[in-house]
Write a sequence for this structure.
């Protein structure tokens, strides 16, 4: 199957005020297939949002390429406008994403007007609201965002994306600002949209529990790189990378507390970039490959559909 969206050797570097180069995304291969939900997980500051913005064309890569349906992403105004009909963003905070002075109707119709979509506007707005679970849709036409609950506001944001009939949604922490009771409803909606519309999604999150419930595949990101990727059930039931294991441990009774903070992206450690915080190295489990962990860099994962892991210990040969 040809990927719907592909990132190849993607890097996004920024120049800091003191002249140092921050490697926010530092070599990423990632694919999202049609009708597939992929979760991109990792702690704050690991590069998830920068990667998502680059996949949307909001950031220009320093190196590498983003392709959609096999064609490189165009960076002209006309090319990006056509691309964003197919790939829509859902933001974390629906309150911030909606103009408080616009009615629900105007918020959903805005994209239709920008892209000059033919057809009856009111019918398209009503259809999008209905698909997003706001029924009867006409009841919400004259409603303002402050009159809605958090879950309803997020549904309006999703309706605005659906109005353009995209192939792919990029959702950045789509339920992080919602009450626990509402999160399941929004996740169920995303799964229903995938089933009904064959809609693909890249869900950016720090929550592995969310990834377990919604994703087909999961990519774990640390300090600008994917360190483990594969089918969600394999990665989350048998994690091979110590970082993935630490993230998963918070769902159990004995969470692993990582030492220190994630390194500054202007000073990426040599060798395995996780080695200064690696529990396996600290406890001696990784002793057979400790020197490699500290000094030998790991290759960038290919982004294939099978499970891959960037860890010297996980890929070390078993000695009998």
């Amino acid at each position: 199957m040809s990927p719907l969206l592909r990132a190849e050797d993607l890097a996004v570097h920024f120049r800091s005020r003191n002249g140092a180069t921050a490697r926010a995304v530092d070599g990423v291969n990632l694919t999202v297939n049609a009708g597939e939900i992929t979760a991109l997980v990792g702690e704050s500051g690991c590069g998830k949002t920068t990667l998502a913005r680059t996949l949307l064309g909001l950031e220009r890569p320093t190196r590498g390429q983003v392709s959609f349906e096999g064609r490189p992403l165009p960076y002209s105004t006309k090319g990006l406008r056509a691309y964003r009909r197919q790939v829509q963003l859902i933001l974390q905070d629906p309150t911030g994403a909606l103009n408080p002075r616009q009615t629900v109707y105007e918020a959903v119709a805005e994209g239709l007007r920008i892209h000059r979509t033919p057809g009856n506007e009111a019918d398209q707005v009503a259809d999008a609201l209905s698909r997003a679970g706001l029924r009867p849709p006409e009841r919400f036409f004259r409603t303002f965002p402050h009159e809605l609950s958090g879950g309803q506001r997020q549904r309006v944001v999703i309706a605005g994306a659906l109005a353009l009939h995209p192939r792919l949604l990029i959702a950045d922490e789509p339920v992080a600002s919602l009450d626990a009771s509402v999160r399941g409803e929004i996740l169920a909606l995303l799964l229903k949209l995938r089933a009904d519309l064959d809609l693909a999604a890249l869900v950016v999150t720090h929550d592995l529990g969310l990834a377990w419930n919604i994703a087909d595949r999961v990519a774990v990101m640390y300090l600008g790189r994917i360190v483990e990727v594969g089918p969600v059930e394999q990665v989350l039931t048998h994690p091979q990378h110590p970082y993935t294991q630490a993230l998963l441990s918070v769902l159990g009774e004995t969470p692993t507390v990582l030492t220190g903070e994630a390194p500054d992206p202007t000073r990426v450690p040599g060798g395995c970039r996780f080695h200064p915080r690696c529990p396996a190295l600290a406890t001696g489990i990784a002793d057979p490959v400790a020197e490699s962990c500290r000094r030998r860099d790991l290759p960038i994962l290919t982004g294939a559909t099978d499970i891959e892991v960037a860890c010297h210990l996980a890929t070390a040969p078993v000695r009998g």
Remarks:
- The first helix runs from residue 48 to 55.
- The longest strand covers residues 21-32.
- The radius of gyration is 21 Å.
